[in-house]
From TrEMBL:
This is Transcriptional regulator MntR. Gene3D superfamilies: 2.30.30.90, Iron dependent repressor, metal binding and dimerisation domain, Winged helix-like DNA-binding domain superfamily/Winged helix DNA-binding domain. Belongs to the DtxR/MntR family. Residues 25-87 form the HTH dtxR-type domain. Homodimer. SUPFAM superfamilies: Iron-dependent repressor protein, dimerization domain, Winged helix' DNA-binding domain. It comes from Myroides guanonis. It is found in: Cytoplasm. It comes from the Bacteria. PROSITE patterns: HTH_DTXR. Keywords: Activator, Cytoplasm, DNA-binding, Manganese, Repressor, Transcription, Transcription regulation.
Length: 240
């Protein structure tokens, strides 16, 4: 059984310890850790087993069985009615999985010419590669990127994340000029829609009007006018 560090792991020795943990995890266990990590980002309380089951599209009973396995490895803590929390080791392991996924997305887009709507499923496979040396060399080869092609932050080798202050476009007032820095919905359908509308990371955006009847947005994007729905505005991250 692994020990439970009280603090997040940051030094080289402890990072190597985390990769030793990853060597002993199945693909399914890694997917659960990553799912719990994503669900816990904006959730100060524990993550419910039902939320995990919904995200992974499996039965709640299967989630409970997996949580017990991860608890035995001291990667999560589970209390009935209070949900699941990642331990320090579990948090770091999850960050390393996310790190690999997002680095591979950068590689696929920048070096192999994939579109940003094509990389998620391929990166889902590549994120399970166990070699710490390969991941660190990939990071260096790419120039130590801090964001993936969708604007999501990439944890560094110590699990540290550079946070960028951003808001949803739907939270911005009329007349405000901003820049697109990410997407909330990274589905291929949404990304393909953005491509059709020529909306990308780095696009200059200014809200010209919000229609009271249907809450549609009239925007100036890169010096051209475009109307989008509130749903689209609610899935675009921007910064002023």
């Amino acid at each position: 059984m692994y020990c439970k560090p009280k603090h997040y792991l940051v030094n080289k020795k402890e990072c190597n310890f985390v990769f030793q943990i990853l060597l002993m995890l199945t693909y399914s266990e890694e997917n659960y850790l990553k799912t719990i990590y994503h669900l816990s980002l904006n959730n100060k309380k524990g993550v419910s087993t039902n939320a995990i089951a919904s995200r992974i599209e499996t039965k709640a009973s299967s989630v409970t069985d997996m949580i017990k396995k991860l608890d035995d490895k001291d990667l999560v803590e589970y209390q009935k009615y209070q949900g699941v929390r990642l331990t320090a080791s579990g948090m770091m392991a999850a960050k390393m999985i996310v790190r690999k996924h997002r680095l591979w997305e950068v590689f696929l887009v920048e070096k192999l010419g994939f579109n940003w709507d094509e990389v998620h499923e391929v990166a889902e496979e590549l994120e399970h590669i166990k070699s710490e040396q390969l991941v660190n060399k990939l990071d260096a080869f790419l120039g130590f990127p801090t964001e993936d092609p969708h604007g999501d932050p990439i944890p560094n080798s110590k699990g540290e994340i550079i946070s960028v202050e951003k808001k949803l476009l739907s939270e911005i007032e009329i007349g405000t000029a901003c820049v697109c820095v990410g997407v909330k919905d990274s589905s291929s359908e949404f990304l393909q829609y953005l491509d059709k509308q020529k909306i990308a990371l780095g696009s200059d955006i200014k809200i010209l009007n919000i229609e009271p009847f249907d809450q549609s947005y009239t925007l100036e994007i890169d010096q051209r006018e475009l109307t989008i729905t509130k749903k689209i505005a609610s899935n675009l991250y921007v910064k002023s």
